[in-house]
Structure formats: C-alpha cells, structure tokens
Design brief:
By secondary structure, this protein is an alpha+beta fold. The chain has two domains: 262 residues, Conserved hypothetical protein from pyrococcus furiosus pfu- 392566-001, ParB domain (Alpha-Beta Complex); 141 residues, no CATH class. Helix content is 33%, strand content 26%. Strands 1, 4, 5, 6, 8, 9, 10, 11 and 12 form a nine-stranded mixed sheet that branches. Strand 16 and strand 17 form a beta hairpin. The longest helix is centred in the N-terminal third of the chain and has 16 residues. It is globular, with a radius of gyration of 23 Å. The mean pLDDT is 94.
Length: 435
C-alpha cells in the first residue's frame, strides 16, 4: 500500500465541542449557490469561505477567489481561530445516521480514520479510482491547492478488510470524548476524535501496509494533488489527507441511483413497455405507487438481477429480469467490458434502454439529458406522476462494495452515477497544511 502517516492537523478552537457545525460544510461539489449563501450566513468562520469562496466583482479570473480563500485561512490561523495540534495524530471520524435500504429504514454507524496517504500513480495498482473525472473541476481544485498549500476537504477511501482493520480503527477512539460534534440537516451526527498513541498508530500502519485503497469520493482532488506533487517535485507535497474506511464496516452504505427515463426530442417516441418485453421477462406487480415500489424493492434478493419498472403510460409496476434475447444482446455488445460490468443493472439500463431501444449514444451529456438520477423513492414517485414527461422509472438494488472492488481492480471503472456513498464527509473538521 501507499505509505501512511499521522499529522499535526489544524482545527477550529471550540469553546463548546457541540459548536463544530457552525464551521463545517458539505463537500465543495455538493453545495449549490443557495447553500453557499446559507453557509456564509451561518458563521463568518465557516469553511465554505475556503472550499468554495464566492466570486467578487473585482475578480479577474477564477483563481482570484482561491487566493482570497488562502488569505482568509491564513488570517484565521494568525488570529488563533484555527490552531495546529501539538502532536502528530490520527483523527477518527464517526457518523451516525438512518437510511432506507431496500425499503427498510436502518440505523447505521460508520467510522473512518483521517490520515496522510502517499500519492501514487494509478498504474501502480495501489490506489484505484472507480469513476472518471472532468477537467474543469480538477483545474478549479488545482488553483485552490496552489494558492493555499492546504488539504481543505476529505477524500473518502475504502480499504479491503475481513474485520481486523475495522476493529483497529475502533480501538483508536478508545473512551475519549469527541473534539467536536454536530448534527447536519439530514440528521447525520458527525463526531471527530484524535489519537496520538504511537503504539496504536503503528498497529494501524502495519495493518494497512499491504492493502489497496479504492477511492469512493474525491477523485478530482486526488488527481489534482498527484498532478501538483508531480509538477512541484517536492517531498512536502507527497502526501494527501484522506479518510479511510474499512470495507467490512457495517455502516458502509451505498445507495443506488434509480433511473427516471425522459421522453426526449433526442429520440423517436417508443412504446417502452412493449420494447422491454423483447429483452426482459416481465411480471406485473401492482398499480404504480411509492408504497408499491418500496415493497417490491424489499422482495428483491441481493444476488438476483431483477429490477422494478414503473411504467408511466399504464401506471403499473413490473418486475424485470433479463431473458435469453437480452443475454445475447449483452454478450455481443461492448466487447471491451467484462460480463460482470455488463450485468450491472446500471449497465443493463444504459445498454438496452438508452442505446438499443431509444437508439441514443452512451455519451455523458446524452445520459444526463435523458435520465433523472434519484436516490429516494418518494422523489422518484413525485417525478413519475407526470407521464407526459417520462417513459418510466427503473428502480435498482444497491451495489455491494465487493462487486465494485472486483470491477475496479479488474481495470474497469464504474458507469456514470453507479454509486452514492452515504453520508458524505464534511469539510472543516481538520485541515492539513503542507507547508
């Protein structure tokens, strides 16, 4: 594995540990302009001013707002609002939350360890990306990194594990009280602890020594940091702050993106239900409704290839399973991909519904225009109540982390919008100054 090490993090000085939520923000790519304004108003020291500084009238280029963010961060440090910890530490990041999985609401707890990870090229097969990146966000994050020389947000990494790593991460926290804690607007409770016990740190380092890392979230920032290190050629930029979570963590939740397929001018109108019958065994379940979808998802076996289809024209709900013609089509199509990749529900929808039935290319822009990606059933039901706009919705089960890991370690990347690792890791809990 890439080398890991503890670090002297910079943290907000809190009079009350429960005040941490005044200063934290969701990941930079998860906050729109309205949320940025809300966070600006929440507290003048909120981390949004660093990770997503607002443009101002005098700015000549995008980089100006990042230079302003760097100056703000330095000012907070100079004033003692943010202070560096006295000892190298690992930081334990715990999140408690409830979520609906296959129609059942469950209480979960996920624990990560925040540390520094050595930057390595993907070709070394130590750190694995699971999705593709875009040049625009990478340039934006490069400008912030260049201006601030600081890791300002968390990158989410997953480590293969049979349970020993998970237990070692739990042991780091001990009986310590949290350094900071808050509850976000989705009722997720975030807590941060630290550990500077050299024996426990060495134990964790030894456990991680021969393991790989799968990037769950933060691909743009990892690639940006790697480029920055290669550009500068200086050892002080050789490591990146990451939050590592065990793949054996029982609180590791991967929510599916259900697919709502639009009636679009990009393609001729089709009878979707009739077209699907060529490639799927179709079984009618019930009248389409939020409750019926939730109940149907709860009946799907995690090992099955079934998915639920809400047909807008008939307002009926169906269970779909690939038939012989569908199998033949998948086998003959996209020869560059493995059978495992092609049998992902998201791949099946892309290949059969978008590419074959609607005769559209599997281009990122096309997929964005044709499909609405939704995590929760109530929102999906609301959208599908407008049959003039949608053919219907495809509801799928969550992917297992082992399936994702097998595909990625085999050299492939996941299709667009395959995974939603929930909950997200917030910024502002701890910063890593590289200089």
């Amino acid at each position: 594995m890439a080398g890991i090490k503890a670090f002297r993090g910079y943290r907000y000085q809190l009079e009350n540990s429960q005040d941490l939520g005044l200063y934290t923000a969701p990941p930079y790519d998860m906050i729109d302009s309205a949320m940025i304004d809300k966070l600006y108003g929440l507290n003048p020291l909120n981390a949004v001013r660093i990770i997503q500084n607002k443009p101002e009238d005098g700015d000549r280029e995008n980089a100006d707002r990042h230079k302003r963010a760097s100056a703000i961060l330095q000012h907070w440090i100079d004033e003692g609002k943010i202070v560096q910890d006295p000892e190298p530490s690992l930081y334990i990041y715990k999140q408690k939350f409830s979520t609906q999985i296959n129609g059942v609401t469950k209480s979960c707890e996920r624990t990560g360890v925040v540390l520094l990870v050595e930057l390595v090229n993907f070709e070394k097969k130590i750190v694995f990306p699971h999705e593709y990146t875009l040049s625009g966000p990478k340039q934006d994050r490069y400008e912030l990194l260049d201006a601030s020389r600081t890791n300002t947000g968390q990158i989410f990494g997953l480590v293969p594990d049979k349970g020993d790593l998970y237990q070692a991460i739990q042991n780091l926290r001990g009986d310590n009280e949290p350094l900071g804690q808050f509850t976000d607007e989705n009722s997720v409770v975030h807590s941060i602890y630290n550990c500077h016990d050299s024996a426990l740190i060495e134990q964790l380092r030894a456990l991680l020594d021969d393991r790989s890392i799968l990037i769950a979230d933060g691909h743009h920032r990892y690639e940006t940091a790697l480029r920055f290190y290669n550009d500068k050629g200086d050892a002080k930029y050789s490591h990146l702050m990451m939050t590592l979570v065990s793949m054996a963590d029982p609180g590791l939740v991967i929510r599916p993106f259900h697919r709502m397929v639009r009636k679009t001018d990009l393609a001729d109108k089709v009878d979707m239900l009739q077209s699907l019958k060529r490639y799927f065994e179709i079984r009618k379940i019930d009248t389409a409704s939020e409750e019926a979808v939730t109940q149907a998802l709860g009946t799907i076996d995690t090992q099955s290839s079934e998915m639920v289809y809400w047909d807008c024209d008939s307002s009926k709900l169906y269970m779909l399973k690939i038939n012989a013609d569908g199998e033949e089509f998948l086998q003959q199509s996209m020869q560059e991909h493995t059978s495992l990749w092609k049998h992902l529900e998201v791949s099946v929808i892309n290949m059969i519904v978008i590419n074959r039935i609607l005769d559209l290319p599997l281009d990122g822009h096309v997929l964005h225009d044709v499909m609405e990606y939704v995590n929760d059933v109530p929102k999906s039901a609301e959208l599908l109540g407008t049959p003039d706009q949608f053919y219907g919705g495809f509801f799928i089960k969550p992917l297992s982390i082992m399936t994702i890991n097998d595909i990625v370690k085999g050299g492939e990347r996941m299709p667009q919008k395959s995974t939603n690792f929930y909950p997200k890791l917030f910024s502002g809990l701890v910063f890593n100054r590289m200089e």
